Please model this.
Amino acid sequence: MNPRRSASEAHEKIPTLIFDSSASAAASLAREVKELIEAKNREGKAAVLGLATGSTPVPFYRELIRLHREEGLSFANVSSFNLDEYFGLGPDHPESYYRFMCDQLFDHIDIPKANIHLPSGTVASDQVFEHCRQYEEMIDAAGGVDLQILGIGRTGHIGFNEPGSSRESLTRRITLDRITRQDAAADFRGEENVPRFAITMGVGTILRAKKIALMAWGENKAGVVARAVEGEVTDAVSASFLQEHPQSRYLIDQGASRELTRVKLPWLVGPVRWSPQETRRAVCWLSNSLKRPVLKLTDEDYNEHGLSDLLSEQGPAYQLNIRIFNQLQHTLSGWPGGKPNADDTFRPERANPYPKRALVLSPEPQDATVSMGSTLDRLREQGHEVKLVSMTSGSLRVSDAEADKFASILLELGITAPASWKEQTEYAQRILSLLESKGAFGEDPLELRKLKALVLRGELRDSAQALGLPQDRITFMDLPFYEKGRYRRFKLEAEDTAHIVQLLREFQPHQIYITGDAADPSSVSALCFRALKEALKEAPSDGPCSVWLYRGKEKALEPWEIDMAMPISPMQLELKARALTRYTSLTSMELEATKTNQGTAQAYDSLGLANYEAIESFQRWQS
Model:
């Protein structure tokens, strides 16, 4: 077992290093790889690396490439073994892991092709067992893996070792979990296109590595990281088996650390500096733990649940409860743009100027509607100048079936008016031909991608119309990083920031709404948020500008994190639900948006505050 490193990590059963960002964690791990390769070179031996795919290791691979190009790190004496490959995909398939590794690493360093090893996705079914046995033998013949790199899936899997994988499992073909296939749906333009099987190293294979490093980024991974690090060893979470490896550890960013006890409940593991937010979190936690409103908490409740220091510093309970209750109450506001001619001392948003120019940035077309559709409606209703900007086209979200449907309808219309619809008919035939020639998994040609973008533009316009937002308030930015890339392989460049700088200078907003601060750093929303941060440095506002963060695909904000809670009436919630039906490409999580809003309202209710139908929540961003 791994030794505990400090009292604050008493609940953690494996060393877990928390970094300020994924970039700093990736740089640290890449530096370790450099030292390993150089040490092996001095011994006259090859370094053997176990490699992972997915969005998590992308920052790490980019740092390895930088070390190769700028510091002369050679991979000529390195052998690599990848964890897994989709069964049924050849190496040239755009979503194969072989193609991914070439795009993200192998094509940019000097590793010999003969030293690259991945399971084959095209081995015949009756040869799978023998192929997997040979893969195990190749790893052993290379001297075993010196350092195994891992990510972690939402089901807690490492490699593709889905729940139920045993401690002794070896390389094999496995059926992919439904959640795993949902997470890959965007890559394959629909869950129905995601392969149902994969070949993966087993848990036992992974645990034979001399050292293991698991990386995790973003709040979506926080829950499963906590289970794997602090929970029992179980085949329901294959990453938990790393607790049994003497040279394994986790490298995570701030977002992925949120559910660890030392971060979430620090008062249970040691002294706490009671900042205003930490105090609010502790009181909310105590209220939830006891299922008792904030104003009914007693001195004994605080003392008996590890909060005696807080009580002695800020008590008695009566005064502390009232102060926190008032803070929570002051987050509630039906005036997201500020209430004109009102005392704004305790309101989330300032009263002046009125009306405000509110810039709502939606990384993909649906994001803003999903997360703050009712707030959009409220801002418009209260007379503010709202500009809704779709930062990317979202074309990668649109399935081939939707493009096929559009082209088929167009073709059908052409049949009824052959003379006047000649060009439209030819266009429809061309689209249908492109769909057939590229197949289910081929790269979308530019013309097809443009059509898919138009499909989503139409859906966004319909959705905005349902919320009463005029079409002249909608802008489509089509940031270049998205148009040039694909999921898990995007790369932000200066021209992306330049587009946002121009928008800020032209619109001069008093308010900005954006998501992505807590997202996986390789995701569309995280890259859009990063581009906005850079743009704000280049084009600072002439006057005060509030930046409000909303949550997209990430876990909803907790009451103690919320700076502005916008109540939603039953009628407004129904309006938002209707707006969401205008999209055909929402994920299961996005479809649950109204239930998430109701959950936030229930959380406020349980703390003893007003009982609303639903709440959309925001956090103030401090640059």
Q: What stands out?
A: Residues 222 and 257 are 6 Å apart (CA to CA).
